[in-house]
Write a structure and sequence with these properties.
CATH class: Alpha Beta
Number of helices: 8
Strand content: 15-25%
């Protein structure tokens, strides 16, 4: 027996329409002894915000502001990770150093000029993260002197895929620290102060 189907009524898409972006909810409060994965941004649940290396620094900064993030993954034309750009890169000393060395104006600075390149990046393996505590992640970020940690899976042939990331400021907020700065040393001090308060 052939079932009958009816078409649905369609409507014109209105100007200014948006679209749903995946959102990962984090626990409001965490402890250093909690499992690390509760503080990890899971890229299977949230789309990574990315930028190309040949994008202007100002456009990249505007993108961070628009999406409310402090880090952009820098991709090449094959969608492979070639670096990271953080708000600290944009707002810190890197742009001034670049201009002193190369000349030009602020508008001339490209993402590739101030990003952390792939060769400078280190990642945590997901299998290690799955057995780690949040305190282990904080210790790792402190030791590496970084605000972000990438998390990767590795295939049999050794290829890595970034599947998550940690942000020290995100962890600090979840620990109850009043984050006043995006400097790593100050954020770590704020975490220690929040832990001391209980």
């Amino acid at each position: 027996m052939i079932k009958e189907y009816k078409e649905l009524q369609s409507f014109p898409l209105k100007t200014g329409s948006s679209f749903v972006r995946p959102v990962q909810t984090f626990p409001e409060r965490i402890k250093l002894t909690d499992e690390a994965v509760v503080a990890m941004t899971d890229l299977n649940k949230v789309s990574v915000i990315s930028v190309r290396a040949k994008t202007s620094m100002d456009r990249a900064n505007a993108k961070m502001i628009r999406y409310g993030v402090r880090m952009l993954m820098v991709l090449d034309d094959n969608e492979q990770v070639v670096g990271l750009l953080t708000a600290s890169d944009v707002l810190g000393e890197k742009p001034m150093r670049f201009l002193q060395n190369m000349g030009g104006t602020h508008a001339d600075i490209m993402v590739r000029d101030i990003m952390s390149t792939q060769r400078e990046l280190y990642a945590l393996k997901l299998e290690d993260v799955n057995h780690a505590k949040i305190g282990d992640i904080v210790a790792s970020l402190k030791k590496s002197n970084r605000q972000h940690a990438l998390v990767v899976t590795e295939s049999v042939d050794g290829r890595q895929t970034v599947c998550g990331l940690f942000s020290i400021t995100q962890i600090a907020r979840q620990l109850g620290a009043q984050v006043q700065s995006f400097e790593l040393a100050r954020t770590l001090a704020e975490i220690e102060a929040a832990i001391a308060l209980g």
